[in-house]
């Protein structure tokens, strides 16, 4: 019986820990939107979005996921789908980037604290994410409706 | 213009997203708890013991990797203290686990976005093993 109560308490703590980060970030996103700061951030992130052929409004979800973790990134993506109707291809590519590379501060700190060398760790994670996202972005063609520029066929 | 409404909207979005994510986070959390007490991972770790030498790791590291892959980074690192490892080996494990951890709960999150969980797991496990192997080959 006490085992079940333990699980319940752990579960609530787990959800609370997500809420603690998720709710402030959602408020920050709204502030960004109302101050038009989100356009500036999206613009400065544009080279990266372009490199991975992501839609312009989805780049910010990649940033949130990379710094705050997959759950928060997913929350930001779910919200951006409601706000801007982000295309499926971009969501797929962001998910593939964030799968190997997310919460880079937290994870790196933990690994460093047990005695791991953190430079190769960061290189391996970022490298994997960039390689897989780049390859997939070139393999999966944009649908003509997704963006203004349609990728020209290579054949 | 930032008004009180901005904060209200942000708060509401936060709660709504949390509820949406909870629908998958709660069942997955319970499943992971059950898996962790089942002893199934010890059996899996036993099976993958011989593979560890590819990454220059002792067989016992198999349990660390399995705990990390299925349950999470903390579970994996908790088991780390029980084995004697050098810095290269610790870094190899750190690379492998930071690329690929909490596969059950995190692939459920990916699935929630309408993205293939199998693709996410495949990418992570592939790069986890590849990068662990490369690091050992280059620096080990």
Description:
- The complex is a heterodimer of chains A (155) and B (140).
- Chain A has 155 residues and is mainly α.
- Chain A has a domain at 44-144.
- Chain A has helices at 2-34, 37-44, 46-51, 59-68, 70-84, 88-98, 104-113, 118-139.
- The radius of gyration of chain A is 18 Å and the shape is globular.
- Chain A starts with a helix and ends in a 16-residue tail after the last helix.
- The relative contact order of chain A is 0.10.
- Residues 147-155 of chain A have low confidence and may be disordered.
- The mean pLDDT of chain B is 94.
- Chain B has helices spanning 4-38, 40-48, 61-70, 73-80, 87-99, 103-112, 117-139.
- Chains A and B meet through helix 1, helix 5, helix 6, helix 7 and helix 8 of A and helix 1, helix 4, helix 5, helix 6 and helix 7 of B.
Order of helices and strands of chain B: HHHHHHH
Poorly predicted ranges of chain B (pLDDT <50, ≥5 residues)? none
Q: Name the chain pair whose interface involves the most residues.
A: A-B, 50 and 53 residues
Distance between the termini of chain B: 56 Å
| Residue share in helix of chain A | over 70%
């Amino acid at each position: 019986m006490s085992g079940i109560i333990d699980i319940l308490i752990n579960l609530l703590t787990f959800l609370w820990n997500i809420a603690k980060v998720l709710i402030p970030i959602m408020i920050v996103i709204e502030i960004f939107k109302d101050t038009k700061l989100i356009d500036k951030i999206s613009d400065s992130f544009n080279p990266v979005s372009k490199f991975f052929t992501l839609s312009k409004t989805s780049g910010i979800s990649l940033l949130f996921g990379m710094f705050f973790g997959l759950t928060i990134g997913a929350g930001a993506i779910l919200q951006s789908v409601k706000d801007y109707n982000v295309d499926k291809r971009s969501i797929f590519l962001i998910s593939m980037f964030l799968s190997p590379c997310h919460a880079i501060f937290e994870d790196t700190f933990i690994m460093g604290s047990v005695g791991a060398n953190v430079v190769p760790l960061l290189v391996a994670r970022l490298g994997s994410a960039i390689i897989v996202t780049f390859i997939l972005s070139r393999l999966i063609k944009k649908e003509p409706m997704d963006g203004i520029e349609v990728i020209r066929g290579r054949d | 213009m930032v008004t009180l409404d901005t904060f209200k909207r942000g708060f509401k979005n936060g709660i709504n997203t949390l509820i949406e994510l909870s629908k998958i986070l709660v069942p997955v959390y319970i499943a992971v708890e059950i898996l962790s007490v089942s002893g199934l991972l010890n059996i899996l770790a036993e099976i993958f013991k011989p593979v560890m030498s590819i990454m220059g790791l002792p067989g016992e590291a198999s349990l660390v990797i399995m705990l990390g892959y299925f349950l999470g980074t903390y579970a994996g690192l908790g088991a780390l203290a029980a084995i004697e490892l050098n810095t290269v080996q610790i870094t190899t494990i750190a690379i492998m686990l930071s690329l690929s951890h909490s596969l059950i709960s995190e692939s459920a999150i990916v699935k929630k976005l309408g993205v293939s969980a199998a693709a996410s797991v495949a990418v992570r496990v592939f790069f986890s093993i590849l990068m662990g192997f490369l690091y050992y080959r280059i620096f080990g």
